[in-house]
Design a protein that fits this description.
Layout (H helix, E strand, L loop, with lengths): L1 H5 L17 H9 L9 E10 L2 E11 L4 E5 L6 H9 L6 E6 L3 E2 L5 H6 L2 E4 L11 H10 L4 H6 L4 H13 L15 H13 L5 E5 L7 H14 L4 E5 L3 H7 L2 E6 L2 E6 L1 H5 L2 H8 L2
Parallel strand pairs: 3-8, 3-9, 6-7, 7-8
Antiparallel strand pairs: 1-2, 1-4, 4-5, 9-10
Helix pairs in contact: 5-8, 9-10
């Protein structure tokens, strides 16, 4: 077990004091869970975002079910990144609503609050701590769920170490646990960042071009990883690699000029005349 093997490497300190300093609304939401009894886990309706007169999103409406793996495709400038910015609180829409479950209004929350209620986002470029080991990166990700004092003084317990081990196995990095993140391959860095999200146990994961720059073998492993997460997590995957999308897609949404152009199975989308004209046919 990695718990026994890794425990001596973890600095000594006081025991975990989970929840210390947490905002009261976050504590309530985290323990109460996300209500999906009356609708999808993610719901955008009539979302519009303008930048200097340009509508990055134009009355966008989209729903993602709990446990669903949804792929989002579309040409550059279609609004994919702005959509994720609205979900994670980085951008406030000019109009429309964004809900996590049936009761949590994301428009009213900050980025940090949104991250703490179970929404994780991975950007296109991996953002790992390159001078730290794979394990230390995972440890830091785990500690983001505690208050700052607890993060400094905490000693990981066996449950947390087991969670790290299981996640490292899941993202193909168990054998690289003490390797510096900076010497990992590009694909391994991508997996590490996904692992850093998974160890926080998010309900919804947003992945922005997860296979960009990967080898064919790494792309295949990432496809397997995404499929393994379906059901236990809800995934929204933005990607330009159509071969990769074809491997994982259950339902595909095509964005164009800030709105939904088409939606359905990969075969249906691939054969849609409008999609061929504005995206796939290019």
């Amino acid at each position: 077990m990695i718990a026994a093997a890794l425990q001596p490497r973890v600095p000594d300190g006081a025991g975990t004091r989970s929840g210390e300093g947490a905002h009261s609304i976050l504590g309530h939401l985290s323990t109460a869970g996300v209500d999906v009894t009356h609708g999808p886990i993610l719901y955008l309706e009539g979302v519009t975002v303008s930048f200097d007169g340009f509508k990055a999103l134009n009355n966008l409406s989209l729903a993602v079910d709990d446990g669903e793996l949804r792929c989002i495709i579309g040409p550059n400038g279609a609004g994919k990144t702005t959509m994720m910015d609205c979900i994670t609180g980085k951008t406030r829409p000019d109009a429309g609503t964004v809900f996590f479950g049936s009761t949590i209004d994301l428009v009213r929350m900050t980025e940090s609050e949104i991250a703490n209620i179970g929404i994780g986002r991975k950007f296109q470029r991996p953002t790992v701590f390159e001078t730290l080991s794979v394990f230390e990166n995972m440890e830091l990700a785990l500690k983001t769920r505690k208050g700052p004092l607890a993060s400094v003084r905490a000693k990981l317990n066996s449950e947390q170490l087991d969670r790290i081990e299981q996640t490292l196995v899941q993202v193909n990095l168990r054998d690289a646990v003490w390797r510096l993140a900076g010497i990992l391959s590009h694909g391994q860095k991508q997996w590490l960042e996904i692992g850093m999200l998974l160890v926080q146990e998010p309900r919804l994961i947003l992945l922005d071009e997860p296979v960009a720059g990967m080898t064919d073998a790494e792309t295949d492993r990432t496809a397997d990883l995404c499929l393994s997460l379906e059901g236990s997590h809800s995934l929204v995957v933005v990607e330009h690699d159509m071969e990769f999308v074809s491997k994982i897609a259950r339902k595909v949404t095509v964005l164009h000029e800030g709105s939904v152009l088409a939606e359905g199975s990969m075969d249906r989308v691939r054969n849609d005349p409008q999609v061929i004209e504005v995206y796939l046919g290019r």
